[in-house]
Write a structure and sequence with these properties.
The complex is a heterodimer of chains A (106) and B (310). Chain A has 106 residues and is α/β, with parallel strands linked by helices. Chain A has a domain at 1-17 and 27-46 and 53-70. Chain A has helices at 9-14, 30-46, 61-66, 95-104, and strands at residues 2-4, 19-25, 51-56, 74-79, 82-88. In chain A, α2 crosses α4. Chain A starts with a strand and ends with a helix. Chain A is built from four helices and five strands. The model of chain A has no long low-confidence stretch (mean pLDDT 96). Chain B has helices at residues 14-25, 60-73, 136-139, 155-164, 184-192, 286-307, and strands at residues 4-10, 30-34, 77-80, 83-87, 93-97, 102-110, 114-116, 132-133, 147-151, 170-174, 196-199, 202-208, 215-220, 226-230, 233-236, 240-242, 272-274. Chain B is built from six helices and 17 strands. In chain B, β12 and β13 form a beta hairpin. Chain B folds into two domains: 4-116 and 240-307, FAD/NAD(P)-binding domain (3-Layer(bba) Sandwich); 132-236, FAD/NAD(P)-binding domain (3-Layer(bba) Sandwich), CATH 3.50.50. In chain B, α4 runs parallel beside α5 (184-192). Chain B has 310 residues and is an alpha/beta fold. The chains are: A alpha/beta (106), B alpha/beta (310). The interface between A and B is medium-sized, with 29 and 33 residues.
């Protein structure tokens, strides 16, 4: 998975062609960390069809807020620089829900 | 037929981990199935000063990590998967998992716990992750130097409000009654905190904002006056609801979905036990969940001795 920060967010996400998934996570977000192995497995499975990225919001708070993300975990699919779909909150962001989010937006 | 476990425990919070520890120490074969994160709700509670002995390192994630390691050290199998349904028509019970696997067990301990409840007011679901939060440890970072509202008046609400003052500039607690339900020591700590303001007799009516939270409409329940309160975030701690859908129609529950169990954690079905927050009980705490888990495991062992020949 591509690690995002303020230097590469524009080029990797907003200026990319095709769908991009961003996993917004934080160092103190236990549900995010618990989900990470499943997200990595999904990145392996769908990585050739969708660009898979993650953003550490603890290190990139302003960047996250700039994307109107103020709650974790949050997963957003971007296409041609625009948000297409997002899911947020621990009960909503199950591995199945993340996989569906990917499959619906390939 | 594959392996038959003595006990399959559903849920890896304090009740489930304690049940696993007691079962494994009694040399029962035990598996815990957890669908999300080990430690349950306690795993996201930063301030955890009321678990006896945890005062030196009073954080939920650390305590739960120790509980998990302890159960594992004594031989409890830990599996990440979701339980879809349980079949109790035979003496050997079947547990169907999201991965497609099916496990067989002589006894089942349901320790799935509870999750934060939503109020269902306008804007709440739409602004989730955009300023509306149910997890202070997950989201507190975003609100450094900003102002937040905490809704609720129980232990969780007041403890998390105190935690949020480490980040936010100002924390306003909105509570529908004129005093807290939280433990007095916690309530006193909150009332002494300069960063905390309290609005009694007040309920939220609507959360609004264009893409992110900008404010909340509050109603005073005594005067019915509605005021507009500008805020950057709203943290909701208005109670919990049980995670018990998979067991509907299998074991007896109250109208809210909490499972009925007796002093020995026995449910309405023989060989099925319930422990922790998912059970009908008066005090939902880490310490009572852990106690439930121990009692359930001991009674599962008794049930097996009585009903199965080894």
């Amino acid at each position: 998975m591509i690690e995002l920060d303020k230097d590469n967010f524009d080029s990797e996400v907003l200026q990319a062609t095709g769908p991009v998934l961003v996993d917004f996570w934080g160092e103190k977000c236990e549900p995010c960390k618990a989900l990470m192995p499943e997200v990595h497995a999904l990145a392996e499975k769908y990585g050739d069809k969708m660009k898979m990225c993650k953003l550490n919001t603890t290190q990139n708070r302003r960047l996250a807020i700039g994307q109107k993300v103020l709650g974790l975990p949050t997963f957003i699919v971007y296409k041609n620089g625009e948000k297409i779909k997002e899911i947020s909150g621990a009960e909503n962001c199950t591995p199945e829900a993340v996989e569906n989010l990917i499959k619906e937006n390939l | 037929m594959g392996k038959v476990y003595d006990v399959v425990i559903i849920g890896g919070g304090p009740a489930g981990l304690s049940a696993g520890l007691y079962a494994s120490r009694a040399r029962m074969s035990a598996m815990i199935v957890e669908k999300a994160k080990w430690g349950g709700q306690a795993g996201t509670t930063e301030e955890l000063e009321n678990y006896p002995g945890s005062i030196e390192m009073p954080t939920g994630p650390k305590l739960m990590e120790r509980m998990k390691n302890q159960a594992e050290a004594f031989g409890t199998e830990l599996v990440k998967d979701e339980v879809l349904s349980i079949d109790v028509s035979d003496k050997i019970k079947k547990i169907k998992l999201g991965s497609g696997n099916e496990i067989s067990a002589r006894t089942i301990i349901i320790a799935t716990g509870a999750q934060p409840m939503m109020l269902g007011i306008p804007g709440e679901a739409e602004l989730r992750g955009k300023g509306v939060s149910y997890c202070a440890t997950c989201d507190a970072d975003f609100f450094a130097e900003l102002e937040v509202v905490v809704v609720g008046g129980g232990d969780a609400a007041v403890e998390e409000a105190i935690y949020l003052t480490k980040f936010a500039e100002k924390v306003t607690i909105v509570h529908r009654r004129d005093q807290f339900r939280a433990a007095k020591s916690i309530a006193e700590k909150a009332m002494k905190n300069d960063k905390i303001a309290i609005m009694w007799d007040t309920v939220p009516e609507e959360i609004y904002g264009d893409g992110i939270v900008e404010g909340i409409k509050l109603r005073n329940v005594k005067t019915n006056e509605v005021t507009d309160f500008r805020t950057d975030g709203v943290f909701m701690f208005v109670g919990t609801k049980p995670i018990s859908d998979f067991a509907k129609g299998v074991v007896e529950m109250d109208q809210k979905g909490y499972i009925m169990a007796d002093e020995e954690m026995r449910t309405s079905v023989e060989g099925i036990f319930a422990a922790g927050d998912v059970r009908v009980k008066s005090l939902r705490q880490v310490v009572t969940a852990a106690a439930d888990g121990a009692i359930a495991a001991v009674n599962a062992e008794k049930y097996i001795e009585k009903n199965f020949e080894n």
